[in-house]
Amino acid sequence: MTPSPRILTVVGSRPEFIKSVALTRELANRGWGQWLVHAGQHPDDHMGTDFLTELGVPPPDARLRPSQASRSHRLADMLTGLAEQMDEVGPAAVVVYGDTDATVAGALAAHHAGVPLVHVEAGLRSGDRTMPEEHNRILTDSLSDLLCTTGPAASAQLRAEGVNPDRILEVGDVMLDVALGVRERLGNRLPQGWPDEGSVLVVTLHRPATVDDADRLHGALEAIGDWVSTTGGQAVFPVHPRTRSNMERFGLAMPEGVIETPPFGYVDMQSALFHADRVLTDSGGLQKEAWFQGTPGVVLRDATEWKELVEVGASVLFDPARLLEEGGAAALTTELDRERSVPTVETSGLFGGGQAASRLVDGLMRFAG
Question: Tens digit of pLDDT for each residue in 263-300?
Fold first, then answer.
């Protein structure tokens, strides 16, 4: 029999699956039941469910298959499916992570059902209202009963927005818990196809602001190719399905010296970040993971919700709009080649030092016990 009280947790995309691992393990250690629902934002198992198998935690208890015809269709289907799951399970609380459409669907479903809502990674703000994620964060925070933050800056943001401090719980970053848990396995592990020698740049690009614009995507690829030819290194590029589709649609070829791979599993991605010399990404989660594994990152965005990374020098921002300017691609190449010293996450005092899940479950026990 599943232990009680039961937490219903919503996941739907790569970062949420990874974050859920830390909570799943800690809930099991405390004898609490969890009902994990795969909301289906990313229908490809290589973007989610496979991570759970790889990291030794059970697969989702339920899986939704929303329409992928449009964002609106998908969001509506996820909301309906999650509402049905909450009616069937009757959870003591619903947990959502981060800022995806699955997150906001879970938040709305919990609100409509009158179930207490816990938002993990509350209080993050990039200030960029053109990003769907920014709207999702704000809406989810406004609906949440317990707002769990990664650190002081996010907590201060919520207080500044008028959130009652009694509803704010500073726990740290559960993604760091998972990253530290696999680090000892990475020294002797290399992803398949990893270069035998030379500098390596790891690249991930998937955001619409970058890859849906032919000129910006062309500029990014040009900069990557120039970095390869300038340094004599190689770039490892696990290509997101959206990016691959757009490259074909725009008639863009991968530059020479770029090792194109399918999306990596979780441990292989951490290994790539661990062994890389630098990282180019437009991802929210991967810019953190790069630092967690000790590698500096160039973030192809004009704003980030993870301002701490910029403040400590772990990441630098590069506005993708610059790729539309003359010399923009060359400027990105220069930024990628710049030598930088990155402090370790352990000495930074940020993100909870690998104890976020324990603090989170302590809070859940007080909140939903």
Answer: 899 999 999 999 999 999 999 899 999 999 999 999 99
**Each residue of 105-141: pLDDT tens digit?**
999 999 999 999 999 999 999 999 999 999 999 999 9
For residues 12 and 119, membership in a common domain is answered with yes
d(CA 367, CA 364): 5
Count of residues for the chain?
369
How many domains in the chain? 2
Q: Is 163 part of a structural domain of the chain?
A: yes
Q: What is the pTM of this model?
A: 0.93
In a domain, 358, yes or no: no
